[in-house]
Amino acid sequence: MDDISQVPASAAPPLGKPLAGKTVAVVHAAWHSCGSYQVNVSQIAAYRALGARVVSVAMMDSLGPAAPEGPKWDDYLNAARNIGANRRYYSGAPTSSIFSPVFLAKAYWRLIHGDQASWLIEIAKRSPLPEDLDGERIDLIHANHFFTLPLVERLKQGKRIPVFLETQDIQARQFILRNQGGFFIPPYAGYSDMLMTELDWMRRADLCTHLNEEEYKDFRNLLPEARHALIYPAVPDVPRAVGVQIVIVASDNYANYKSLRWFLTEVVPKAGGGKVAIYGNIDQGVKKRDPALYEAHAHLFMGRVDNIALVYKRAGCVLLPTVEGHGLSIKAVEALACGAPIIATPLAFRGMNVDPSTLSNVSVAHDAAEFAQFWRKAQARADRGDTPGAMSDTRLLYDRAFSLDAYARALAGALETLRA
């Protein structure tokens, strides 16, 4: 594939409505305030742009009361009001599963050894089909993450319904990374065992779609018999940056915690008069994992905000201090969309097949000292009141590769491959 920064913006033909009169079910984890949630929002919007009626089927990834009851569902519903589906359904494994010897052996016993792949599969196996979904005539299922596929199997009810599986990275890699921040007992679950579980379920999909270059290549090698497509995700548009605030946006996951820890311990001491506001629920992750680090920098944390678009609108520069993580970074794409100058490590642009040094408003820092140097220069611009221009290289890149229109066209092309 060509470097996406070099793909010219061309006059595309009208998108059309190839899914008019059809119903698409988007099945996903009941997550919010994270990149995966933004991907789900865009999937629903893209299928609606293609003419489909779209239903959302959210699956909780832990035991609990009947969906959508309980505090976890309350948090999800409060934070996921803008998901955009024509109708929403909910499912999750009941708390009573803990009394099943089979569940204890196949799920809980494996989880305490770090086998999150088996745990999530068993959760999905025990997540009931929503009762009021029986009346839906579903024509296509777009599943997110391999571990939702047991629920997808029941959703199909024995019918021949094509299934797109959006992998969103090799999850076994994410599990190994996540396990670094948890407490488990030996013998620890290994990468190869969790990957085998992941691949076994992926074989059931009609098309595996991948949202970054790295996972596309990896999965084609791991599952050569399956059908694969590289489809960059659409990330919801944000307002053009017109402010002077220097910002970091991050949700609470272990990769973001490790990256922010590097930033606070290695970059901040070198930044002189650099100022930054850190938005997102990463504050809770830092407070939980390193209370002393949080207390030392508590004044930088703004917490979760309901409207992240306003954060980007007030931005004069976005910092992406990424030193850990796999898969395409959604917050990096959001930064592209706002068009503000960006200071980033090379890893922030992973999976995009783009050389960030070719983007005129991106400063690529290879170590903490260089990051701090670029940050000081950005602070000087902010102190002068300099605001971002109306258009930039990063905004043009977003329009070409990560806009809703680009994503909908890619999905329409994937549909054509199934019909071929």
Automatic annotation (TrEMBL):
Record's keyword terms, sorted: Transferase
Keyword Transferase: yes
A Pfam family per the record: Glyco_trans_1_4
Protein's UniProt keywords contain Chaperone: no
Gene3D superfamilies in the record: Glycogen Phosphorylase B
Annotated GO biological process: lipopolysaccharide biosynthetic process
GO terms for MF: glycosyltransferase activity
Protein's name in the database: Glycosyltransferase
Organism: Methylocystis parvus
